[in-house]
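Researcher: Good morning. I'm working through a list of sequences from a screen, and I'd like to move beyond sequence-only analysis. For each chain I'm collecting a predicted structure so we can compare shapes side by side. This is the next one on the list. No need for commentary yet; just the structure.
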Amino acid sequence: MTRSEPATSIPNLVTGIVPTPYVVRRLTGPEMSLTPDTAVLADSDSAMPIARRFVSEYFSDTSVRLNLIRDATEARGPVLEFRLDAPPDDAVPGATGIDPTGADTDERHSIRIQAGGATLTAPTPAGLYRASASFRQLAAAHRISGTGITPMMVLDGPRYRWRGLSLDMARHFFTVGELSRVIDLLAYYKLNVLHLRLTDNEGWRLQVPGRPKLTENSDDFLSVGEYAAITDYAKQRFITIVPEIDIPGHIGAAAAAYPEIGTTIRGEAKLPGLPATACTHLDPDNEDARRFVSDALGVVAELTRGPFVHIGGGETVFMPAEKYRRFIDFAATQLAERGKQVIAWQQTVRAEPERIAMFQYWNDMLAHAESARARQDPYLLARALTPVLLSPASHAYLDRAYAEPPRGPGASRPHPGHPIHEASTIRRSWEWDPARILGDLEVEIAGVEAAIWCETVEGFADLGRLVLPRLVGTADRAWSLSTDHTWDEYRDGLASHARWWRQRGWEYFDSSLVEWA
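Model: Good morning. Structure tokens for this chain:
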């Protein structure tokens, strides 16, 4: 923006961009119209894949195929240019936290819109792709309003480098096609991690060559080829797949296939309401268990292109502390020797492990069976000086009932969610600040990750009703540098998004707190 151009802020009701952008300035002049004659131009070969993907995604949104051109002289209407360059304003702060790719990707970008077209500018392809997501949302709001797009300058970038969704594949299996739809949803809201929980007592969802019994009696697993395909699909959208193989607990499915690896606790010591198999664990003194973990983690490390692998480590209530400590060290060493960095749930901090790159904090629930032991975890996390990934159950666990009613009679109703969680409004799932979730403790925040557990999910429709619209609120908390925007502003920006969800075949909760467009 030049000094001669007057600018005013624009409410998010006008833009419809969510997560909320850092700066939106109104420019002078007439509106930009998107028509079938609008052309898409890339300023370089490096920008061309992003421009091409935008054309494809815009077609999915609208059934309109925009013309991809090589030179501006070919245009018959407005031009949408994708440009790899430094944004025109350096006022956007850099992100903090841990980059899931292991690099230091700059996702800051700008969007400049005037009557003759729009220019999307970013220093990296990832930043340019994030800008394209915002422009798709602007275009969607334009279609709903029936007016042109207001001339504006958008300056934006993420608050945290790690912004994700943890998806429970063990308790409900999702196909490659369904996972692709989830990835499309994450990309639309600028999330960049899909954390796949692939194992638990209820199922083992990844093929492990050399361990055929893990999957031979079920069709509900990802083959090696399917895992590679979904990894590629995510990478094209600048999303990193992070696999989780939960050990040394939650191994009922693995122990059912290979009984020699598991140690089952006495029946009278099991947790109330759970079968004894739910408390089975792996013993570091059991050579079969060690060999199994080496086999499984070796395959996962080989298949995973990103630098991170999650080893779980949660809820081994009846495992001796000394054995738990040795097993966590053993598993982390297996991955470190294969060039991977290890993520684990917050409980592992009690074992004082040396090879954990990131702890995932979740348990701020007073009623949970683990809560008494978890009260000291924040202090241990601060003392460990290890980055913390925030998934506080109070706000970021999406498998819970809604506290508010749906908008009207006959409106879609959510699956009830897990009974352990208190019902919550979509406002509460948005209304928190990651920087304050651990109080005044000094910890390095790696990022923010929502979690959807699937004990009560019976199909893809249930998944949609539980994650939408709450996942968008988590995305806003993780991305938006505009930390002072209000619930009303966020809600107004969200209102136009239900039409896109319906168009894409997503079920969602029709919350009465939002005037959906």
